[in-house]
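User: When convenient, might I ask for sequence and structure tokens for a protein?

AI:
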Amino acid sequence: MSKTPTFFQSLVPIIFLMGLLSYNIFFQDGEWLGEYSNHLILLISGILALIFGLMNEIRLSKILAEVKENILSVLVPVIILIMVGALAGTWLISGIIPAMVYYGLQVLSPEIFLPASVVIAAIISIATGSSWTTSATVGIALVGIGSALGISSGMIAGAVISGAYFGDKMSPLSDTTNLAPAMAGTDLFTHIKYMTFTTVPSIVITLLFFTILSFNMEVTGSADIDNLLVSINSTFSISLTLFIVPGIVIVLILLKTKPLIALGSGVLLAAVFAFIFQGEVLDSLGDSRIETILTSIYTDTAIVTENTQLNDLFTAGGIMGMLWTILLIIAAMIFGGIMDGVGFLSKITSVLLKRAKSIFGLFASTVLSCLGLNAIASDQYLAIVIPGKMFKDAYKEKGLAPENLSRTLEDSGTVTSVLIPWNTCGAYQSGVLGVGVAEYFVFAIFNWISPIVTLFFAYFMIKIRRIEIPNNSLEDNNFNSDMIDDGLIKS
């Protein structure tokens, strides 16, 4: 008969995992075991958990079945990520992403520079699905332009990061936006739709803050973006017609078309638009236009402009560019599956849930777990995967729809990673933008206000969707008939 694991024993693999990740980040610059260090560390930690499980006489077949179930649960998100890689490549060579940058930069004005930076970063991040790419390209340009105006680099970085992470959260192309619903057990577009309830108020507060700040701030000089615009226009054929493709994809999403069909349509239409509008670009990249388009779908594509600032932005990795993320997700699923199969996650969850007797307590425990893992494990993926696995059944037992969990994972796991100096996201953003985390922390309004907003919604039971109402829910959580009638709670 199998033995029940102790709480300490259940924590050992997680402590081991965090220790190795910390060593890799602080002492080995993330390259301790090569490019796939974090993947291997997850697998090594999973093996340790497996050994403990076998010592507790847990059947190997039971553990492997849990691992299999975990991997199968992310099969659709992995396929979507593959499609996202193809989309990124075709949207680049078709001129769609360059057009978004071109028109976005023209919004700049010294009087509204900071809120405009939020909007521009958000647009680019939604288009690319990557806050990292946005900060490393347009973000660098905005910091340079804003600094010339005499604006604090911390303010600019905070505005860029706020917009970039808003776009990252709301873009169906983002890996974390695909990962969170996979962990919670809901679908991508339900997750995105449900996130708008907390994300829109957060970004509105952010824009109001930067607008008020701009009105009370003196700036000098002018935002010289002519060189950037000339470089984009001389490389690509830029027109508003290119926005037809993302427009169609958005319409398909709003019509609740399956993600693979919506994204696949975006890939095919972008390929057609590349033939029609970007013939010179295709010719400059290879002998055959068809071969160039296929290459952009599968592997690296780099379009060189006259401005080195833009060259990093006009680079896409195609499907192969998603390989690192896909393998990390699979490694995390293996680790999580083993932890679940040997009973460690349920043991940890049971201890944590003793303090989460109410629905608000459950939301608060999720938020604190995400924040803690961002600080300790130094990786936003783990801050989504581990709490997602830990609290999934608890939300179900409370009669809460899975999108409540997926939204909370993003509101507290994805966006706060950049606020931790030693987290991979914090280290990356501060390094790329040349602004320390301490300098932009206060001004990254969207990032630190998001978990506060999600807790506010949970406390006042606003837009908390239910799949059932347990018998004791009215007593424990102060539900009332008005909430049900208003559609705030669905049974």
Summary: The first helix runs from residue 7 to 28. The chain has 26 helices and two strands.
